[in-house]
Amino acid sequence: MKFSIKSGSPEQQRSACVIAGVFEKRRLSDAAQRLDEASGGLLTEVVRRGDMDGKPGQLLLLPSVPGIAADRVLLVGCGHERELADSRFRKVVQMAATTLNETGATEAVSYLGELPVTGRSLHWKLRQVVETSAQALYRFEQFKSKPETTYRPLRRMTLMVTDRQMLPEGKQALAEGMAIAAGKQLARDLGNSPANVCTPAYLARQAAALAKSHAAITHKVLKEKDMEKMGMGALLSVARGSRQPAKFIILEYKGASKEKRPVVLVGKGVTFDSGGISIKPSAAMDEMKYDMCGAASVLGVFRALGELQLPLNVVGLIPATENLPDGDASKPGDIVTSLSGQTIEILNTDAEGRLILCDALTYAERYRPEAIIDIATLTGACIIALGHQASAVLGNHPPLVHDLLKAGNESGDRAWELPLWEEYQEQLKSNFADMANIGGRPAGTITAACFLARFTEKQHWAHLDIAGTAWQSGDKKSATGRPVALLIQYLLDRAAR
Ligand code: BES
Ligand code: MN
Ligand code: ZN
Predict the structure, then answer these.
(1) Is 380 in the pocket of ligand 1 (CB under 6 A)?
(2) pLDDT at 402 (0 to 100)
């Protein structure tokens, strides 16, 4: 969908539809009031008759309103004015976009950005309108022989501000919103792609495509031979069980001078996780195609970076492999040597994410980064701890963790901290190697992060476990594009310092 921004009054907009809010109980928003006046009180009349009392999520489409230049008016219920906060605002925007997509209007002007949202700026609201509308209309139909497209989908949305002076702020918000939406869309497409298409080599080609289309992005792909030479024994031990060759994908975004130390993003790229020899139960195993959503979020961030041109240096590292059981696969009890030199006893081949991440984290050191952030669908335990609302964040540098939590709150792509105390490290003891790759059932998300912490001791590092947030299950099964918005917000905040 295309977005643009304009100033002007609602009754004068020549458009297929003008969108305005109504509060509970029967209170017209500013834009709705102007439409009401221009139409000789039609909206007051409609509201009085009880067709729209402003309850959250209520919708009313009025065709051919007299005195108004637009073909239709879409009224959206916003609940009580004082209770309009982040999530309700997003819900309102989402409902408006979904409804419009199902009506004949292919284009609309929206006044939802003028609604008062508690504690939020115009910039925030306009960006959310772009992100949320794009998110609501997302479809993944590449693999349907006959696309189930809507008859006349919504193609263009103009965001309205009341005053010309608001246009510069609005334009910046729009640019950010569109870049984030594009990044999320790439992350969602990659996540939703089946594992027989989205292989490690496919992810490598995605990186190549990004480098090709953005001058500030370069890329490099290491093959298994290169990884052997370097000594990435942990990563390669996972790849042994698969016929698809593993790839180690390196992306570099250069938006600042060479001397500026980069932020390194490391994304788990397990394109299918069967569990390996410690095989998973069959129920919902298809969802393990999403085990590369950390990698997809890194690629999504690079797409957004390419569009936003932030004055930063960012490196993306993606260890990509399948985790399958084969005659040559790792077996429980096998001991491998990581790139760091530390040895690992693989007690469960299904704890493969940390095995590929640890070598990438060691590799990240060579960039002398200001911060390393890894993003991974790492533990089922994270879903038990935080559900599908928040990603988990754990790290060894409190200011970095704080910045990520703040970026989550700002972007609406929230995270919550779990402790990374020394005491948990005991659970990773091995009788035969430097450490085991599992820490037992208690605190599974924390012990997984404790494992990674052993490879980042000299660095400022944080880990995002996105097992509960990267995709939705059930009849709305789909990748969410999280945590692209959080990461871009973090980078925007860094660039603004
Ligand atoms: N990719 C999974 C984690 C996962 C499971 C994410 C379900 C989302 C939904 C990861 O590789 C894994 O299998 N983790 C194990 C670790 C255990 C063996 C210590 C898990 O969580 O069960
Ligand atoms: Mn696994
Ligand atoms: Zn996994």
Answers:
(1) yes
(2) 99
Ligand 1: nearest atom to the Cα of 291: 1
Query: 127 in a domain, yes or no?
Result: yes
Say if residue 147 is in the same domain as residue 196. Answer: no
- 172 within some domain: no
Whole-prediction pTM: 0.98
Range of the domain at 220: 183-496
What ligand 1 atom has the least distance to the C-alpha of 438?
19
The pLDDT-based confidence of 55 (bands split at 50, 70, 90) is very high
Q: List the catalytic residue out of 171, 220, 254, 280.
A: 280
Q: What is the pLDDT of residues 417-472, one digit of tens each?
A: 999 999 999 999 999 999 999 999 999 999 999 999 999 999 999 999 999 999 99
How many domains, the chain? 2
Distance CA 113, CA 89 (A): 10
- Give the pLDDT score at 151: 76
Report yes or no on 35 lying in a domain.
Answer: yes
* 369 and 459 share one domain: yes
User: Annotated catalytic residue: which of 240, 354, 454, 482?
Assistant: 354
Same domain, 420 and 330: yes
Residue 456: count other Cβ atoms within 10 Å of its Cβ.
Answer: 24
Largest Cα separation within the chain, whole Å, is: 83
- DSSP letter (8 states) at residue 480: -
Query: Three-class SS of residue 390?
Result: coil
Residues 360 and 236 occupy one common structural domain: yes
Q: Would residue 173 count as lying in a domain?
A: no
* 491 close to 312: Cβ distance less than 8 angstroms: yes
Pocket lining: 350 vs ligand 1, CB cutoff 6 Å: yes
Q: What percent of the chain has pLDDT over 90?
A: 97
